[in-house]
Amino acid sequence: MIRLNEIRKVFNTGKPNEFVALQGINLTIEAHRAVALTGPSGSGKTTLLSILGCMARPTAGRILLGDREITSLPERFLTEIRRSTFGFIFQQYNLIKGISVLENVMIPAYPTGEKHASLKERATKLLNLFNVGSKADSKPEWLSGGEAQRVAIARALINNPSVIVADEPTAHLDTRLSLELMAILKDLKEEGKTLLIASHDPIVHSSEVVDRVVAMRDGQMQ
Known about the structure:
The protein is α/β, with parallel strands linked by helices. 32% of the residues lie in helices and 25% in strands. The chain is built from seven helices and ten strands. It is globular, with a radius of gyration of 18 Å.
């Protein structure tokens, strides 16, 4: 469970270009559920997703992960929480060019100190699971959009996270691939994963996978 209490996020505090991105957000995310954040550009949904995934700190308010308050934890502890609890799927995929697909999937697990052989075996299984095992030795720049998305999902799962955080995951996919992605997310949810998705795509927030839609506007929940 993730709970946000009176979360506020302000950028450029005290400057002429000060911007209030989030205003007094109270939100509880139950485990094993799928929540979609929706709203127009600038509504605050990506900022809220970043705070839910411990990628950003709030200006004010409290964050609880389970029964533990993590709002002011030192960065080294937050880094470990991100690595062990969250798997991230980014809008731009953020695959590293010049190295293999397999290496891209393995990278998030390198800091754990796991033996290379077992890590490689797990990464290979994930690629096979998403039908891109044949691309293991390919470079990311050689992949199609759908293949890159599947590799990004495999990478997000390499540390067996309990929460999947996805920012506009269908932004660069056509309808068929978007539906395939939602089918993959459905399977992950059935395996017990919690899903946090920011998207303005109706395919996402009208999906049967999603348990709750949180509409955002002007930094507030509607």
